[in-house]
Specification:
Layout: H1 10-21, H2 27-40, H3 46-62, H4 69-82, H5 89-97, H6 99-107, H7 114-130, H8 136-149, H9 154-161, H10 172-185, H11 189-200, H12 211-223, H13 227-239, H14 248-259, H15 264-273, H16 277-280, H17 284-303, E1 310-311, E2 319-320, H18 321-343, H19 347-356, H20 374-377, H21 407-419, H22 425-437, H23 452-469, H24 473-489, H25 493-508, H26 518-542, H27 548-569, H28 581-600, H29 604-620, H30 624-641, H31 647-660, H32 664-678, H33 688-701, H34 705-721, H35 725-741, H36 745-756, H37 759-762, H38 768-784, H39 788-802, H40 809-825, H41 829-845, H42 849-867, H43 872-891, H44 901-915, H45 919-933, H46 940-960, H47 964-980, H48 988-1000
């Protein structure tokens, strides 16, 4: 934010300049730089003013404000002309370097005459010659002007590229980009990509690179068939430019890339993320570059028939794709014409038209783990087409029937399908809900249909079932009760009884707020289900005139209540299956009642449900072989008698049973077949997201993590479409972590960026802990991607937020500890100390012994390694805290997962003292660590730890304390021990160190 109080002296001014230099480019940094220039003018000292002006000039340049950049530079040039002696070598270098920045700013302004641009280059050449500077930078700017104007660039290119680089030449990365663009303009994609290779490989970089080069290389990579490289560059390159006004053109090229690779939905998502660029880019040239990329995207979306989709655009109003495209086209065409008028060519209009005329280069390139089409982001416009009851054989193709045009037939078909629990009933109810909501709805006057009151009750019951599927138990119970009342009014006691039965079961599943802890909540739910079952039995006994279908459903609800009770009682603190035995017999008795009744009345659907409940009961009691036998029999029956829509669910159960029996290959086959069959039914008929999630688990057991990742992302996206957003985000979080574990860092970051940009996340409507988990994974991914600055900022923000989690101090301890380490890696040990203290305070409330010990030891190592003797006191303070944590762990009986905390601490004392030059103390600590480790045993990891400790002790003793003889004795003895124990690989570094010591004797 802008400064709150002006600096009172030059020390405070320079401190403020350093702080502003750490801010990202943008309005905040620019406004602060302007205020610091005002402050610097009060000190009557030229050098602080020059430094403040240089900071402001940089803010304008990289904040995309080219109109202001030359004005500030003119002040600097005046100061140089008036007081040249004030400019030391550093300031002089900065001044002459920025002639190039001003040349770029003037090119970006179409109102500056071409003669003035050439005059500025002449000024630059004259001043360079006068100062005795090499002219290669001047020729570089002359080439850029020729390319910008659209002149023949061959001579200008040779005059620049043929000269040797000098101290004031653009950085190697920028010059590589310019050379590659020259070849690209000549139509030579391969040579351009070959030229770009050092930048794209990360060997050369700067403020704008490799993001700028990556954006230009995207399409050449596609044209040469290198799609995987293009995908990777898009993910990494976009992250380096998003929301950055000075890189608006780069963002525009990424939007164009999305449009030409079948990723229009992602393009709209990125456009929304960069909506600030419509308002914050003051450079006409950058505006033209950005808007042309935007227009390519919008043109493609509109051509695909989605012109009415909302789009992020210029502030002050809402936009559709079609409306925004028209606005963008007008503005961009005007900008291109202004540049061409100034330059006397048609280069910018021609270049813009060439981009707009490009056809898609590939039908569909999967860019991210969250691939979506425009249909996925469009509002739903139709319901699924219902299907007539199919033949029962699974091998018989389903016959799709259209939704009846006749309202009477539609109502009757919906009820008939609902009675069978047929999945296609959902489409009929959805259509009826739309019709009934219409103002001109007229209910059929047909005794077979019944009154409107009954239809409204039917729709309420369907809505209640939907709420139950989304685990919204309270809403489901209320809707079922309301439906029951309407059925009563319609004179349908059997229907009313069923709705009340559903309400009883939904009420029992409402989470208990008074219970404290998961076990207490499970006990409370168990009691509620027992009460619900008693009420269901009574309701059944007291209701007369039930049809066979209604009575079977009541019996199934009774069995379901006891099944849920059995499942819940396993979480109520009982160990093993013994605590559930009392619940098994009543459940099986209810299942037998249901099965006998359904068999007597030939209700195939209820027979299948009874058999499924029996198999599930065996699974819940731990008798997996019996459950598998039941499931095999049920599958045979379903294939012969139906109903076919139960097959995916039963196959999924058998897959889970196979996994429980350690047969992951059979589990994969069952779940894959379940997923294949699920595609025959409406999306919500089978829990397809769960099938994908279970397949992901099985794939991990089979060692196929990439396949698991695909299933996780598919599961999450399906949950998202069904409105189960919490489930979706949890699954996406797992997918992001798996992607990170697989080393697909950019994929993880892109996925998390997409999720965190969702409207409900931005509006803080999603659970705050779940959002924090997503951000935490993203911070770790940024760290893994070597973006230490962004990772540290995210961790610091999370640490501040989690400090208020009074109910979860352990998570705060973990986050604060990771924040401290990242601050340490950045060399900011003051803030790192504060973060570590926060972690220790939270650890006191919720111990995290090993995590805190690891953190404190790592901070000590970092400080000693970076600061040497000057950091020893701070490093030892971290180790003292680690010692207290180890003492607490010992007193609490905590056992570390790896080596003991005391051993690790002794080793770290040795390493820290060695880094700081306290070699005697280092050797003493390392010998203590060796004592704690003991002799190397058969375990390879322990042998490796022991060998490393010996190596470091010998290095300290032989090299730094200059006592090679005892060091060699130590090494020779260690090599002998390790060899005798069969750890020959662990001896290699010891042998190499011994050879070095002997050579130096």
């Amino acid at each position: 934010m802008p400064i709150t109080s002006p600096p009172q002296n030059t020390d405070e001014l320079y401190q403020a300049l350093r702080e502003n230099d750490r801010r990202p480019y943008g309005r905040t940094r620019t406004v602060t730089a302007e205020e610091l220039v005002d402050a610097a003018e009060q000190f009557a000292e030229p050098v602080p003013l020059i430094d403040a002006l240089l900071e402001l000039h940089e803010a304008y340049t990289y904040g995309s404000e080219p109109r202001k950049s030359p004005v500030v530079f003119a002040r600097l040039l005046t100061l140089f002309d008036e007081q040249p002696d004030v400019f030391d070598e550093r300031l002089r270098h900065q001044l002459f370097w920025r002639f190039k920045w001003v040349a770029g700013a003037l090119r970006a302004l179409p109102e500056i005459p071409l003669a003035s641009l050439r005059q500025w280059l002449t000024e630059m050449r004259d001043r360079y010659e006068k100062a005795g500077l090499d002219l290669q930078p001047y020729y570089g700017q002359a080439y850029r002007l020729a390319a910008h104007v659209g002149e023949d660039t061959a001579l200008a290119y040779e005059l620049w590229a043929g000269r040797s680089r000098s101290r004031l030449s653009d950085c190697e990365a920028c010059e590589i980009c310019d050379r590659a663009l020259y070849h690209l303009a000549a139509g030579d994609d391969e040579r351009a990509l070959s030229t770009w290779e050092p930048v794209l490989a990360g060997q050369e970089s700067c403020q704008e690179e490799p993001a700028r080069s990556a954006s230009y290389a995207l399409l050449p990579l596609l044209r040469t068939g290198r799609t995987d490289e293009a995908r990777g560059l898009h993910l990494a390159g976009y992250r380096g430019c998003r929301r950055n006004p000075s890189m608006a053109g780069v963002v525009g090229r990424h939007l164009e890339f999305c449009a030409l690779t079948g990723n229009e939905a992602r393009g709209l998502e990125l456009l929304a993320e960069n909506r600030n660029l419509f308002d914050e880019v003051d450079s006409p040239y950058d505006q033209l570059d950005f808007l042309t990329g935007v227009e390519v995207l919008l043109q493609r979306v509109e051509a695909l028939g989605h012109g009415e989709l909302p789009a992020a655009g210029f502030p002050g109003r809402t936009w559709t794709v079609t409306g925004l495209r028209a606005e963008v086209r007008g503005r961009a065409a005007d900008l291109a014409a202004r540049f061409d008028d100034r330059n006397g060519t048609s280069a910018h209009t021609d270049g813009r038209n060439a981009r707009l005329d490009r056809a898609p280069l590939i039908d569909a390139l999967e860019l991210t783990l969250r691939t979506r089409s425009l249909d996925d982001v469009s509002p739903a416009t139709s319901v699924a087409t219902p299907v007539a009851p199919a033949a029962v054989s699974a091998s018989t193709a389903r016959t799709t029937a259209a939704v009846p045009e006749s309202l009477t037939e539609l109502i009757l078909q919906a009820r008939s399908l609902e009675e069978e629990a047929h999945p296609d009933a959902q489409a009929c109810w959805a259509r009826l809900r739309t019709l009934v909501a219409s103002r001109d709805y007229t209910h059929p006057d047909d005794p077979a249909v019944g009154p409107l009151l009954r239809l409204r009750a039917d729709l309420l019951a369907d809505e209640a079932n939907w709420a139950g599927d989304r685990d919204e138990s309270a809403d489901a119970a209320a809707l079922h009760e309301e439906a029951a009342g309407l059925y009563d009014d319609a004179g349908l006691p059997g229907h009313a009884a069923l709705s009340r039965a559903c309400a009883l079961l939904a009420t029992a599943e409402i989470p208990t707020k008074d219970a404290d802890g998961p076990e207490a909540k499970a006990r409370a739910k168990t009691e509620a289900l027992t009460t619900a079952h008693t009420s269901l039995v009574r309701l059944h006994e007291e209701t007369s005139g039930l049809t066979p279908h209604q009575e079977a459903r009541l019996l199934r609800l009774r069995a379901t209540a006891l099944g849920l009770r059995l499942q819940t009682s396993g979480n109520s603190g009982n160990s093993g299956n013994s605590g559930n035995e009392e619940h098994v017999a009543p459940l099986l008795a209810e299942v037998d009642l249901l099965h006998a009744f359904a068999t007597r009345h030939d209700l195939t659907g209820q027979i299948a449900r009874a058999l499924l409940l029996r198999a599930t009961t065996h699974a819940l009691t731990g008798d997996l072989p019996a459950a598998l036998t039941e499931t095999d029999g049920l599958l045979d029956r379903l294939k012969e008698h139906g109903p076919a829509w139960h097959l995916p669910r039963v196959l999924a159960l058998r897959g889970r049973l196979h996994l429980g029996l350690q047969d992951a290959q059979a589990a994969h086959a069952d779940l894959s077949e379940a997923l294949r069959l699920a595609a025959d039914w409406p999306a919500d008929a089978v829990d397809t997201p769960r099938l994908h999630a279970e397949l992901a688990e099985v794939c991990m057991h089979l060692g196929r993590p990439e396949e698991a990742l695909r299933h996780l992302t598919r599961s999450a996206e399906l949950d998202l479409r069904r409105g189960r957003r919490v489930d979706a985000f949890c699954t996406y979080s797992n997918a992001a972590q798996l992607s990170l574990d697989l080393g697909r860092v950019e994929d993880a970051i892109a996925l998390l960026d997409s999720l965190l940009a969702e409207p409900d996340v931005v509006a803080r409507e999603l659970d705050d802990r779940l959002t924090a988990q997503l951000r935490l994974t993203r911070a770790r991914a940024l760290h893994a991607g070597d973006d230490l600055k962004a990772a540290t900022a995210e961790f610091a923000a999370l640490a501040a937020e989690s400090a208020g989690w009074d109910d979860d101090p352990g998570s705060h301890a973990m986050i604060a500890a990771e924040t401290a380490v990242l601050l340490g890696e950045s060399g900011e040990f003051g803030p790192a100390r504060k973060a570590a203290d926060q972690a220790l305070a939270a650890h006191a409330r919720a111990p995290r012994h090993e995590h805190l010990s690891n953190t404190l030891r790592e901070l000590a190592r970092l400080q000693a390694q970076q600061q040497g003797p000057d950091g020893l006191a701070g490093a030892r303070a971290f180790l003292t805290d680690a010692g207290r944590v180890a003492d607490e762990a010992r007193a609490a009986g905590y056992e570390a997962h790896g080596r003991s905390l005391d051993t690790a601490l002794a080793y770290e004392h040795g390493r820290v003292n060695a880094y700081a030059g306290a070699y005697d103390e280092a050797l003493t600590a390392l010998e203590q660590a060796l004592t704690l480790l003991g002799e190397p045993g058969p375990e390879r990891h322990r042998a490796g730890e022991w060998a490393e400790c010996v190596r470091l002790a010998a290095a300290v003793e032989g090299i730094y304390l200059e006592r090679p003889a005892p060091a060699l004795t130590r090494l020779d003895a260690a090599v002998a021990r390790l060899t005798a124990a069969g750890h020959t690989e662990e001896t290699e570094q010891l042998t190499a160190l011994a050879a070095r010591l002997r050579d130096e004797e």
